[in-house]
Amino acid sequence: MAKITLDLHPIFSQGGKIEQALNEVIDQAEKQRIKTVEIIPGKGSGQLKKRVLRFLQRGDIKTRYHRIEKDSKNFGRVFVHFRH
Asked: What domains are there in the chain, each with its CATH number?
């Protein structure tokens, strides 16, 4: 199964780059017909994960993927599933 991983650790404090990276990974998944995107906001305070989830809930983004799965075993990981 094809999967892309986006690790946000290197840019966690760079607000604009986070949204840009999220947009790029969604675009890439659509273009390459990738089934799953793994986003790693890390554990930390949870603020970055909340930001990622808010981004994914935006109307213009939500229509582009099938569902979100929060990893029950690893708090610092979110999966975005696509149905192509």
From this structure: 3-81 (3.30.1370.110)
